[in-house]
Design brief:
By secondary structure, the chain is α/β, with parallel strands linked by helices. It is about 40% helix and about 20% strand. The chain is built from ten helices and 15 strands. The chain has a six-stranded antiparallel beta sheet with strand order 2-1-4-5-6-7. A hairpin with a 4-residue loop joins strand 10 and strand 11. Helix 9 packs parallel to helix 10. The chain is globular and about 65 Å long.
């Protein structure tokens, strides 16, 4: 899948932008603040969720347009001839449009001109993965970021994961609200806990399946990038070590019911997959990756993303679109060259940013280069 045309309206620093591209890696270079990452953020809205910055929709609107103004991202995507989805040998195009509803925090989605029932429908059309400079702290910051990273990996292999996660979060919030009020219908709370147990167990099972596949893909490392060993740790995931999914679901439902008083006093739900964590070890050193150098941590992250792209290419027939913001930072020349080789071998359309075009010299004419200056693009 490749974005061959991208159009932005009142998005961040862009009043209007139209960019035409082909399936080769796209390199955006320019000074800090020129608008490079804003283009990657726009592309990240082709997937469900809040984008790579996790911004509120109002924050994305171009400042000069006003707080209540809408913004829009439109993309034409092309599936290559000969992919599994286009077995008749012809290329297929898909049109995606998304943006903010006027004066609200609701995001609208259209696919081939038809309104989608929810953002989750995007998962059936395109998959995106991203690395950003803020993720350089992924292994040393709290578990929330690692869970989001893991769930983005899961989504690439199991598009239904977004629907389950949304349903689980809805039930989680509703149960917490009822417990906080102190007076509630026990039958209604029990129904919410039943839904949480069903969706939460399915989420945990999908995470374990994804981690198992990633471990196999990353077992030997990818070129000069180190092997990575991943483990998802959590009460539900741990239950699935010894119980079948139905038994694990029953156990989670009982745990939620038993925790009502504790959750009321804590003001938070204390059991469930929303409290799980992703642990990663540097396979070559057999060392927790958070104890490694910044460069080694970045190399492990890149290895995981490349491993995921390989899996999706094999299992779904098409790799994800990769959004790699300042990815060359902390990578030496050998690893930069290996990264570019792998991106081209995957036939994955990747979007890369950097301040210095010389950092992409090894990519050469295998990529397409654009210069970004004051929210204006020119071909380099």
């Amino acid at each position: 899948m490749a974005v061959v045309r991208l159009t932005l309206s009142d998005f961040r620093c862009y009043s209007f932008l139209r960019l035409e591209a082909d399936p080769r890696p796209v390199v955006l270079t320019g000074a800090n603040g020129a608008g490079k990452t804003n283009i990657l953020e726009a592309l990240s809205f082709l997937a469900p969720g809040r984008g790579l910055r996790r911004a509120r929709l109002a924050e994305v609107t171009r400042r000069e347009a006003g707080d209540n103004a809408p913004w829009a991202v439109a993309a034409r995507l092309e599936k290559p001839a000969g992919s599994r989805e286009t077995s008749d040998g012809t290329a297929e195009t898909v049109e995606i449009g998304t943006g903010r509803e006027v004066g609200s925090e609701r995001r609208l989605v259209r696919i081939d001109g038809q309104p989608a029932r929810s953002q989750a429908a995007l998962s059936d059309v395109v998959s995106t993965l991203w690395l950003t400079p803020s993720m350089d702290r992924l292994f040393t910051d709290g578990a929330v970021g690692r869970r989001r990273f893991l769930d983005r990996l899961v989504l690439g292999m199991d598009p239904a994961h977004a629907t389950r996660a949304t349903a689980y979060e809805h039930s989680l919030r509703e149960r917490a609200r009822l417990l906080k009020e102190g007076r509630f219908d026990p039958a209604w709370v029990a129904l919410l806990e039943e839904r949480m147990a069903r969706d939460g167990t399915a989420m945990a099972l999908a995470r374990r399946t994804t981690v198992a596949s990633l471990n196999e893909a990353c077992r030997k490392g990818i070129g000069p990038f180190p092997a990575a060993r991943l483990t998802v740790v959590g009460s539900v995931e741990d239950s699935l070590e010894t119980l079948d999914p139905a038994e694990a679901e029953t156990k989670l439902r009982a745990a939620l019911a038993a925790a009502r008083r504790r959750d009321f006093e804590a003001g938070a739900t204390t059991v469930g997959p929303h409290r799980s964590d992703l642990q990663v070890r540097h396979g070559n050193k057999d060392q927790p990756v958070e104890q490694c150098s910044t460069g080694e941590q970045k190399a492990v992250l890149v290895a995981i993303v490349l491993g995921q792209a390989r899996i999706q290419a094999n299992q779904r027939g098409l790799p994800p679109i990769l959004l790699l913001d300042e990815v060359t930072a902390h990578l030496d020349q050998t690893r930069r060259a290996a990264l570019f080789d792998e991106l081209c071998a995957l036939s994955a359309q990747s979007w890369l940013t950097g301040t210095d075009v010389s950092l992409f010299a090894e990519l050469g004419d295998r990529g397409q280069f654009f210069r970004v200056h004051d929210a204006q693009l020119t071909r380099a």
